Amino acid sequence: MRSTARIAALAVSVCAAGALTLVSASVAGQPVTQTLNPSPPAWQTCKAVGERTICEGKITESYGPIDTGLTCMGGFDIFDSGALDEVARRFYDENGNLVRRVRHQHYTFGQLSNPLTGATVNYTQTQTWTDVLAVPGDLGSATVTLTGEYIEFGADGAPVLIGAGRVVFAPNFTVEFQAGPSGFLDLLAGDPSAVGATCDALHGP
User: Which of 18-22, 133-137, 157-161, 199-203 comes out lowest in average pLDDT?
Assistant: First the structure.
């Protein structure tokens, strides 16, 4: 398994993207008067609900092409481009510390590419990330559950790689549990069979 940074960079590569549209969602409750730890992103709206706080919002982002760091035989790296809609919620306890967050992501466009030939592989991706913090306010203590699907399609429309189901990551981002086709995880981990299938599709005719 590659490092946390490498996995996060590909799985949530929009972190380096520029936001195109920000839409704040409404949350029933009273205005928040306490400091929240960690602070929510600017595109989320927060309201006090009882002694606790809920923040939520929607963002649309695009990114790429960016180098994934995955290298194919033939001397080229796989580049990634995409666009997604994300709806997210954060839950804070009575002390203002984050205890859980949920992010629903739908990629409206996804494409891997070979910068040497221009060959491309399109992909679809829909996923939900649920973080549960063992230590309130400390994202480094979060157990992360990923559910959804990731499918790459070759030029003929046939699936090249499939990842689907449910994966649970420990706070150090090692896999605690995995169910369903593991193609997405295998690609992130640099498994030769997964990378090879993608590379073959990107070599072009």
Answer: 18-22
* Residue closest to 20 by CA, chosen among 83, 75, 110: 83
Alpha carbons 136 and 152: distance in angstroms, whole number: 37
**Alpha helices in the chain, H assignment, sequence order:** 4-11, 183-188, 192-202
pLDDT at 2 over 50: no
**Using CB atoms within 10 A of its CB, is residue 3 exposed (0-12), middle (13-18) or buried (19+)?**
exposed
Beta-bridged to residue 57, according to DSSP, are 24, 88
For tokens 């992360």, name the residue: 144
Burial class (CB in 10 A: 0-12, 13-18, 19+), 157: exposed
Q: How far apart are CA 67 and CA 56, in angstroms?
A: 31
Flag the least confident range among 9-18, 45-54, 107-116: 9-18
Whether residue 127 contacts residue 85, with contact meaning beta carbons closer than 8 Å, is answered with: no
Nearest to 84, CA basis, from 15, 187, 154: 15
**Percent residues over pLDDT 90 in the chain:** 70
Best CA proximity match to 9, nearest among 87, 73, 100, 79: 79
